[in-house]
Amino acid sequence: CYLEDGASKGAWLNRSSIIFAGGDKWSVDPRVSISTLNKRDYSLQIQNVDVTDDGPYTCSVQTQHTPRTMQVHLTVQ
Hints:
InterPro entries: Ig-like_dom, Ig-like_dom_sf, Ig-like_fold, Ig_V-set. It holds the Pfam family V-set. This is Ig-like domain-containing protein. The protein is mostly beta strands. The chain is 0% helix and 48% strand. The protein has a single domain, classed as Sandwich (Immunoglobulin-like). The two termini are 24 Å apart.
């Protein structure tokens, strides 16, 4: 997920459950983390994926102007 500027705030959700909000981790799952290669990168990382991780993931970015969302679907076979 891409933050337009360093001031934007991001959140990752799985279905309706918040995984991360900004830098705060809401998930108790130790396999999930946020990759921040730079201040505009806000990528969700899941280690050792399992079939239970299958499904939609949504990144929501709150900018100064309008909120944006991006959805990806993780398929685990």
